[in-house]
């Protein structure tokens, strides 16, 4: 039996994750409701998502759902348990998932750094052009305009002196 996940969502009352999937063997669209148990506003969303994804009862159904999406759903549920509205929870999640280019990642702890790297990896995979894509072009060359005067960098000057 193969299951193809089509939609995944959350229900706040009672707390449950809802998966709409296509059953290939019977060629039918079905809905699976997975109750969320032992989850409070103090729970770790990443850990809860990992446990659900690895649960033997749901593992076959959740293969097509990324752990990141499940983590987002658990974050929305935690926000609901904290008394936030759905819009507030979504905005908070967007802020956590957005990478500030001016942020110094050398100052982050290992857990936060791993989170930022996974966000960057996912964004890269989403934007990457593959050979099978219709707008794929091999060996693209781009010339950038030289409107402004080039700035010299101190690290570039020092490396020239050492040679």
Automatic annotation (TrEMBL):
Annotated TM spans: none
Pfam families linked: CEP19
Matching InterPro entries: CEP19 (IPR029412)
Main localization (coarse): cytoplasm
BP GO terms, sorted: microtubule anchoring at centrosome; vesicle targeting, trans-Golgi to periciliary membrane compartment
Coiled coil residues, start to end: none
Superkingdom classification of source: Eukaryota
Cellular component terms (Gene Ontology): centriole; centrosome; ciliary basal body; spindle pole
Compartment(s) where it occurs, according to its Swiss-Prot or TrEMBL record: Cytoplasm, Cytoskeleton, Cilium basal body; Cytoplasm, Cytoskeleton, Microtubule organizing center, Centrosome, Centriole; Cytoplasm, Cytoskeleton, Spindle pole
Keywords: Cell projection, Cilium, Cilium biogenesis/degradation, Cytoplasm, Cytoskeleton
Transmembrane helix keyword on record: no
Family annotation (PANTHER family): CENTROSOMAL PROTEIN OF 19 KDA, CENTROSOMAL PROTEIN OF 19K CEP19
Family membership noted in the UniProt record: Belongs to the CEP19 family.
Name used for this protein in its record: Centrosomal protein of 19 kDa
Organism of derivation: Zosterops hypoxanthus
